[in-house]
Write a structure and sequence with these properties.
- It is built from three helices and no strands.
- The chain is mainly α.
- The chain has helices at residues 3-30, 37-69, 81-92.
- Helix 1 (3-30) runs antiparallel to helix 2.
- Helix content is 78%, strand content 0%.
Amino acid sequence: MDNESREKLRPVLYLAAGAYLVYLAFKMYGGLGQMAGTEHTVSMIAMVVFGVFGAATFIFGLVVAKKVFLDQKPGAFGETPKETEESEQEEEK
């Protein structure tokens, strides 16, 4: 897989992973009524963690996708135009 394909696949994976974690958080919320005691507490903590990290991953995926798919310079991960130019020159060597 070439570098350009990897760069375009990465945000899609971020979006999918983030959406899945948020989905799991909502599924866990639906099952909270069937739990009691420590299991209920642990599930609530996991639900919050999954929801927060899922939302953060999804938002990060959107930001990266915007940069990659709109083909903006600098590079997708915060490179300056000079750094992007230097890395392209190194790849040509």
